Amino acid sequence: MDISTYCIHGSDDDPTDCTGSVTIPIYQTATFAHLAVGQSTGYDYSRLQNPTREHLEKTVAELEHGDDAMAFSTGMAAITALMELFKVGDHVIASDDLYGGSIRLFRYISEKNGLTFDYVDTSDSSIIERYIKPETRAIFIETPTNPMMRVTDIASVSAIAKAHHILMIVDNTFLTPYFQNPILLGADIVIHSGTKYLCGHNDTLAGFAVTATPALSERLRFIYKTTGACLSPFDSWLLIRGIKTLPIRMEKQQENALKLAKWLCTQPKIKAVYYVGLPSHPSYEVTLKQTRGFGAMISFEVDKEETAKKLLESLNLILFAESLGGVETLITYPMLQTHADIPKEERETKGINERLLRLSVGLESIGDIIADLEQALR
Predict the structure, then answer these.
(1) Catalytic choice (27, 99, 224, 275)
(2) Across the chain, what does the average pLDDT equal?
(3) Is 17 one of the catalytic residues?
(4) Active-site residue, from 137, 150, 196, 355
(5) Is there a catalytic annotation at residue 275?
(6) What distance in Å separates the CA atoms of residue 356 and residue 359, rounded to the nearest whole number?
């Protein structure tokens, strides 16, 4: 079945429904009654499983070609649960250009709990081998990275991970399963902030962890039910609804983003444009090899701090807000928002300076988006 069709119809229809409802019901219940001692309907308590969430999880697992998917209250809740797979003394190699919230979790929570991390440029897979130790248990990457849009060759890094018997974890939030499937390229676990493109409407928070094997599913399901950061039935229903339009949204947002990236490259006040769909991107060929599209995330650097601040204060249509992946075009100032907790010197070494801005390109008319940026840059 084509992915566009599957996004609309999802997993098998709800087995508990006999009404013929076209949409999955919202099972807004905390608990489920037992028929008798030792008998269960298959559902006991919504923290463990709920029919609405189950439908969503099966849909996401299928989209990512995984064995199982777990829906969390946020993307950070998913990553937090994932870190419980490891024990004191375990070592993780991570991309050095990660979402600031992931870095904050690793540095202030995971390290406190006894894990150690090395942050490396995973877009150069030859570097990774140097950092593998006997206690290394996982490689954690984003691709493309947030916000510098670096691309990691997933298959190449997965081969390294498998050779050393360590987990390969990929945050696939920016491209979604519509454009990229890391498990097919060798990843063991795929992470999503479902708040972003999977939801698509900036109206709820969600996260996913998709596992490639039954053994990993069993381990993570135990953590999931024990720590309890599951997605509510109503929010699960919103994600189901959002995924139905994922293909058409991703295609249109990508179309807008490519036109916008090309326009940005012509503007005298813009000194650099980071978009994986531009042939000038250093990993353009890797992107063509491992994805079916480029997504709609663009970062760009203006000529000076004053230009960045004036632009943010002059926009009329584009919203100055955190997050990404919704139908509205959003612009973010990473140094003050997503990466505010990263030390200044470290941020600037990565290119996250006072001149860098990040765009999540939405579904508005591309002419209107460009016109708004044009007047703000005057």
Answers:
(1) 99
(2) 96
(3) no
(4) 196
(5) no
(6) 10
